[in-house]
Amino acid sequence: MSINAIACVNKLLGGNVVAGSALFVGRRFVSALPMLILITMADNATARSSTPARVAAFCGAVVLGAVVYALAFQYVQPAGWIARDGTFSDGTIFLVMQFFQALPYGGLAAALLFYFAHEQRHTRALQNSSVAKLALDRQTIEARLQALQAQIEPHFLFNTLANVRLLYEGDASRAKALIHDLADYLRAALPCMRETGSTLGRELALVQAYLRILKVRMGERLDVSVEVPADLCGASLPSMMLTTLVENAIKHGLNPRPEGGTIAIRAERYGTAVRIVVTDDGVGFQQKRGAGIGLANTRARLASLYGEAGLLTLEANLRGGVSATIELPYCAPGTQATAS
What we know:
Elements lengths: L2 H10 L4 H29 L5 H25 L5 H4 L6 H80 L1 H22 L3 E3 H19 L3 E6 L8 E3 L2 H14 L6 E10 L2 E8 L12 H14 L4 E6 L5 E8 L11
Parallel strand pairs: 2-4
Antiparallel strand pairs: 1-3, 4-5, 5-7, 6-7
Helix pairs in contact: 1-2, 2-3, 2-5, 3-5, 5-6, 5-9, 6-7, 7-8
């Protein structure tokens, strides 16, 4: 603002420099409002356009805004402002000077708005990309779990049918009763096999039904012990995982032992985790165990679902046999933990 302009404002306002300056800035702001509105409209109108189109729209808004600013600033001036200042006696020169004064400020405002809008679009694109990646990772994990589950199903069924065949060779009448029990069990169990998630209580019920079927063939050679607190029955557990451990203990631990033995199932809370232990007093590690598809897939499923928080360990018991322990995060009913 020139010295002559300040003097003119000061004279009009009776020497009050502060009030005059405030009024002068206010008039500038009011004159600049149309330009800001035009720039904002250009931003909204080209939000989904290419960068060249947005730049052209911003440039047009700045130029048009500068014209409006010059006209508005002249309109809000006090009467006689231009006439009293000999430098600006020509109104055309005054308009041109105000136009060129407004261009840098308009360009700066447009550049800032363009930059922040571009950053916002870039951030939103990154967020959408991250969400899409998470969805793809989840689909990949689910597909992998379904493939593992598809391997477990025939493995379980073939072993069960083999037991039926062995029983038929020794006692056909008992085998017939076993087939009826097996049909009832599979009618309830097969829908669960197609699900990746279940609960400890639900899986325990299936395991107990499975052991009842085996007890028809093994008779006194099989004893079962279950120690699972009622408050843990709702804990989340991948489907068929408990059945796989029990089946492995029967096949590799008790079957090779002439007198059979005991299968013990125990569960407990351990901090924020749940431990499920399946113990047998069979032949132990004298037989090859742990290399089958059942335990291999159990480890892979735990790793896919829980990462390092999902563990499967095998330990030899002091009095013979093996303890298989699953450790996984405790999840309330209806929830499912995932790998971090």
